[in-house]
């Protein structure tokens, strides 16, 4: 495994720094575990993303389930991105963070009536509908809406994607999206609906995809649906191609914004040269993942057969991806001691579950010792947002490094806080 350090995360004299902040010193100021994000890295990712997509006429919406901290959201909305949301809570956060309602898209396979009403009240830009049943519900709730409601149907393009089976979404048998033939029927049925304006097609084929080919294939299927609809006199003016661009978690694989944007633009140019509507993408992970780390302390180095355990003070409740889909996050020391032999460890947390295991057989040098500060890398996306208080552990704090200082952007949620809700 190579170590995916970034320009904003580097060793200086053996001490890990995020921008100008020394991680070891931060860990004396704030109790571990805590998340720590680089503002410069986040802004740099957004800049690269916009540089790839905007000149090609493709708008960028941030998929906020990756990280929905209010401070992070405000930084992202300030850069002019739209938001892709999947719950009423996310819509509420998006609006509070300053995303203009017309640039909010509401996706998700199980929108409740209350969530749909909320989204209608806010006046969001587009509903991405995932079933005939949902469309019917939306049609009846939209009766009182004072403006036409824009709808895209999320189609399941049935393409194979080389990613973990728990994060593929665009193949048959998956709960997401509508089959193209059924989408066609719904477009016919709702073509002249008085409140709903069915004018979009959406897809999202999965996450952590490191190859552009599935995008080409899926978009191609979407575009053949666009031309079938056109033949029937139904015009598609909104294409939402989802997110899923893979980042380097240490195995060297990723999909750059530039490659994704080029593939999408080339496919559009060759297969739908006369398409003049909007195109949006919805990256989440690739915007924020490599801007974040989880800082943790080694609790014990437990000698055992066949290998020692490295027992951290971070656990599956803080960082759930390894337990949820066998994800691996590179783990590095905050202070490099210098040359030492590499040893194998099983890296675990203190929670009473066998799946509270971050990795097995992990080669680590630096001769880890109790008390060492370490950092899991690429922990900005789908990490803090999934954290819980399981085992009555505090919910992890979040820090933002930017403009030469560390700011607490979510304080640790303590047992005293949590107990207040249980009186
Ligand atoms: C999760 C999700 C995304 C973002 O996926 P990433 O892999 O984080 O880029 C985009 N669109 C939809 C509909 C999603 O559910």
Task: List the defining traits of the structure above.
binds pyridoxal-5'-phosphate; Lyase, Ornithine Decarboxylase, Chain A, domain 1; 28% helix; 2 domains; TIM Barrel; alpha/beta; 20 strands; 423 residues; nine-stranded mixed beta sheet
Query: How helical, in percent, are the residues?
Result: 25-40%
Label the structural class. Answer: alpha/beta
Annotation field: number of helices: 12
Count of folded domains:
2
Shape: elongated
How would you portray this structure in words?
The radius of gyration is 23 Å and the shape is elongated. The protein folds into two domains: 162 residues, Lyase, Ornithine Decarboxylase, Chain A, domain 1, CATH 2.40.37; 177 residues, TIM Barrel (Alpha-Beta Barrel), CATH 3.20.20. It starts with 8 loop residues before the first strand and ends with a helix. It is built from twelve helices and 20 strands. With 423 residues, it is α/β, with parallel strands linked by helices. Strand 19 and strand 20 form a beta hairpin. The chain is 28% helix and 24% strand. Strands 4, 13, 14, 15, 16, 17, 18, 19 and 20 form a nine-stranded mixed beta sheet that branches. The protein has an eight-stranded parallel beta barrel with strand order 5-6-7-8-9-10-11-12, surrounded by four helices. It has a three-stranded antiparallel beta sheet with strand order 1-2-3. The structure holds pyridoxal-5'-phosphate (PLP).
